[in-house]
Amino acid sequence: MPSVSETWGTMERERRLSYPCDNLVADPDSALFRGITVNASKTVLFRWLCQMRVAPYSYDWIDNGGRQSSRKLISGLEDLAVGQPVMEIFKLESFEKDRHLTIRVKPKSGALKTFGDIAVSYIVVPTTANSCRLLVKLIAKYPLGIRGAFMRTLLPWGDLIMMRRQLLNLKQLAERSHADSV
Question: pTM score, two decimals?
């Protein structure tokens, strides 16, 4: 049975879905799943996912140089193109408007050396006209040696802490935007 550090907020049927990141990393060492229900339309939620191009929306004091992630939608960030930077260490691999964003650690980056080859899909699954499930799958191929052994143990728990905060923040912001628009 998978641990909470690997499957937070998700149901087994959600983990069995096909995710766009599935074919990006050859022979991944792990797959982590995250999920949350958001009481907002898929369009509003997706707009907030696009905001990750400029900020991580997790613990800003840790991974955003102390700068607060914007609490307002920044116009133009929804204009996506493959290859754009996302949260500084990732690049946009693929997307489908109002459906998913898939990112991967930038090649030749310090993050690649530290964490390994990581790809992440954020998927918006509408449940009603005004509610969605935000599902995330992270796949990782860890670096070789002691660094890889360390990441195999640390990444699931570290990601759980950071991504849980990210998803809760995105939920709150999307729900507020949705309420303001109705």
Answer: 0.94
Q: What residues make up the domain containing 156?
A: 4-177
| Residue 105 host element (H or E) | strand 100-105
3-state SS, residue 89: coil
In what order do the strands lie in the sheet containing 131-141? 30-38, 131-141, 117-128, 100-105, 90-96, 85-86
Task: Reduce the DSSP state of residue 109 to 3 states and report it.
Answer: coil
Please indicate, yes or no, if residue 182 is contained in any of the structural domains. no
Q: Is 82 exposed, middle or buried (0-12, 13-18, 19+ CB in 10 A)?
A: exposed
Residue 67 included in any domain:
yes
Query: How far apart are the C-alpha atoms of 105 and 38, rounded to whole Å?
Result: 26
CA distance linking residue 132 with residue 128, whole number of Å: 7
Total number of domains in the chain = 1
pLDDT digits (tens, 9 = 90+) for 54-90: 988 888 777 656 677 788 999 999 999 999 999 989 9
Residue 17 sits in a domain whose CATH number is 3.30.530.20
Of 107, 132, 125, whose CA–CA distance to 117 is shortest?
107
CB atoms within 10 A of CB 130: 16
**72 in a domain, yes or no?**
yes
On whether residue 103 sits in a domain, the answer given is yes
Q: What is the pLDDT of residues 21-51, one digit of tens each?
A: 999 999 999 999 999 999 999 999 999 999 9
